[in-house]
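User: what does the whole thing look like in 3D?
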Amino acid sequence: MSSPVMHSAHHAPTGFIRRYIFSLDHKVIGIQYYFLAVFSVFLGMALSVLMRFHMVYPDAKVSFFEKLWPTGAPGGIMTPELYLSLMTMHGTIMVFFVLTTAPQSGFGNYFLPIQIGAEDMAFPVLNMLSFWTTFLALIVMVAAFFVPGGPPLAGWTAYPPLSAVGPLSGPGEGLGQTFWIISIAIFCGASLMGAINFIATTIDLRARGLSMMRMPLTCWSWFVTAILGLLGFAVLLAAGVLLLLDRLAGTSFFLPAGLMVNDQILNHKGGSPLLWQHLFWFFGHPEVYIAILPGMGVASQLLATFSRKPIFGYRAMVYAILGIGFLGFFVWGHHMFMSGMNPYSAFAFSILTMSIGVPSAIKTFNWIGTLWGGRIQFTTAMLFALGFVSLFVTGGISGIFLGQPALDLYFHDTYFVVGHFHMIMGVAAIFGMFAGTFYWFPKVTGRFMNETLGKIHFYLTFIGVYCIFTPMHFLGISGNPRRYADFTNFDFMGKLMPIHTFMTHAAIGTMVVQFIFLFNLFWSIKKGKPAPINPWNATTLEWTIPSPPPFDNFAGKHPVVNHGPYEYSVPGAPKDYIMQSDPA
Amino acid sequence: MASSITSDIVHGNPPPPTRNFGGGDGEPGGRGAHRRASMTGLLVLLAASVMLFAAFTSAFFVRRGMSNDWVDTPIPNILWVNTAVLLASSLAIELARRALRSGKRVWFNRYWTAATILGVAFLCGQYLAWRQLNAAGFYLATNPSSSFFFLLTCAHAVHLLGGMSALGYIEVEALMLRLGPGKRTAIDVSAYFWHFLDAIWIYLMALFFFWG
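Assistant: Here's the predicted 3D structure for the full assembly of 796 residues, as structure tokens:
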């Protein structure tokens, strides 16, 4: 404490539990979040493959199903209710415990403090609580698999009345749905704690000379994502409390009068299921940007580094992130065009939705401008960043169709929607995570991941996801409804079944390929090629410190920043990059 | 609210001279940075709370406007007493902070203890109000108005429990004579949060009074 240089936010712990389990170190917490997401993504992927399997082979008897779900799959044949449960859990686990967790809480926790030159997050104890609360939420969510009646079947959006009326409406709608709501409420709390940390850290702990407009775009994207999470999750928490009261305390916030379920008239009156949709999507649409913005930051970072060029239009990129974040709060109505909405409101929501295309296009053109004329290095990390841009464009363009009420009338609740959001929110965001993993792995472990395995994994995954999700658009245009467990009984669907079969096989193949990544990840921790401090000749602060970084990141020193984040190929400079901390 | 926090940061506890919003502010490890981060964290927390109550409020008005089963919940008279108690508690906290600023530790302890006791009194008063409403036949699920009444007062009480634990922590530290300069931030953050709960409570009272 005698001098600011000696001061450390907290001292390096020595015991195993303090060091690796209940750690206050933002780096350990980031890794904990990352592996929580890795576990969740494999669980979610397994559920999705089971769903795809059932769609194509609805009559297959798999004794394994019966062992897992005795009531959901009597005789080994999956019931439609079990299918909906798998769908609900797939969506929930992927959206909350993968897309919200890894890009923001995982990478952000590890690299935000280092990239801004801080020793740790602003509130280390809160940070630890945030992780363990997320962990608790995951436990409660997974526990929903094992309660009487099984997991809920109201979808990740949990629309009432289905989600509010209890076991009357389906086997999973008893305890399973209650667990779902409680888990999401806990998750909201965890996200709010995380957001407080991210915002305070970004605003107040930046190194000397690191103005906001010198921050790497990764930091910008984590910062804006934290603001979205802060405003969004508070509203979801409110909605969850109301839903829980409707279920458990007999209130009527979302349940209308005279509702008849399974031949019984319910004792609720006067509530509105639409109210839930408004509250949910006020959170739900920003949630899409919570998933994708960190990926955008990582893509920007990597495209500049591996093109050896400054990011094209840095300021425009920052304003685009802010613009997307801001507009994201005014478009929730486009999820409800078909729920009975005043056409004037629909028009306004539609125009606002289209306007998000402007900042999105700015980002895309700037990425292309960054690549233009660059000396591109096709590392695995770069390939995944390029894949991110590709998927972002593909998924974004189908959004333009869905954002128009007249077209949504047709596309609503078809596979077109499923294809759209998987492309942009699911796969693009996951490509952002892969890119970040390959890029930062040398910093976290001091070793490279295997590039050959990485490239095999990239190309197979890239082809695989396009094979899975592109046909969904055609199916949607052909009128294939979503959320159905079984299409084999519909005459008009007969000619589409081969496409479904193809998609299922593509999904199984893509799943198998992911084990290459898993193997690469764990193998490289111990056996990867040793990496120097700055293997990619990158400019940001994390590449100035040893790999893996010491406990307090900068070994008691406070870095001073003299340069912008992307000074590559500066004319007259001795090297083709100038690090942020190089002398002015 | 926000301006008082800003002015306190600026006048009450001078930040490092390098503070400027255009650049990184140096000394990320110093106490100044920690204090600023705590204040930012508090503002962010308040923003989340505001969003929570805003969401409840929008549900309140949507639900109120769409049905004919809304029966205004009578405001129990004790709520007016509770309001006065909570305001007095805030006043006591402010007096405590002033006493501390002019070095009067004894008076700080007295005022802070008073504030803590008044906070407990408010919670007890809320409990009495709920019991009175129950006695009059209003329960959580009786009608949408009473649902919102219990929901909002409970949400406020949960926030208040959080504030109470902060107040209690400072109280214990003060009585154990462990209130060093490093605790100033904790005192200020707790005090601002407590004032914020005042503001939320007055807002809720207005909501109940005008729209039932």
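In plain terms: The domain at 26-544 of chain A is CATH 1.20.210.10 (Cytochrome C Oxidase; Chain A). The radius of gyration of chain A is 24 Å.
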